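Still learning. Show one?

>
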Amino acid sequence: MKKEYKTKMKQYSKEGWKLFGSSRSLDVALLKHYDKLESLGDNAHEIVGICAKYKSDNVGHQAAINSACNTYARSAGSHVKGRVVSDMASNGDDTAIEFDKFYARFVV
């Protein structure tokens, strides 16, 4: 973990990364991030927001957040659909028809 941390910090320094909107240093934020991932174990995963070539830090920051939100929403939507179809199949219902009914109610 220490080796990974040192490697990432070298990369971030070389690429000129800065922490936006925090009173913490990049070092502390990265260490806290690693601690949180470690404490959550196998249930933890990172969702990364991506943006490039923005002249304004605020616009770039918001674009990265929106990117991460969209990634999370797609992942969560797939998970919910899989769970619902699985639950319906265990009841012996016609999953295609029942899912369409559920989805119609959910979207409204």
Observations:
- The chain has four helices and no strands.
- Helices lie at 2-15, 26-40, 57-90, 95-107.
- The first helix runs from residue 2 to 15.
- The mean pLDDT is 84.
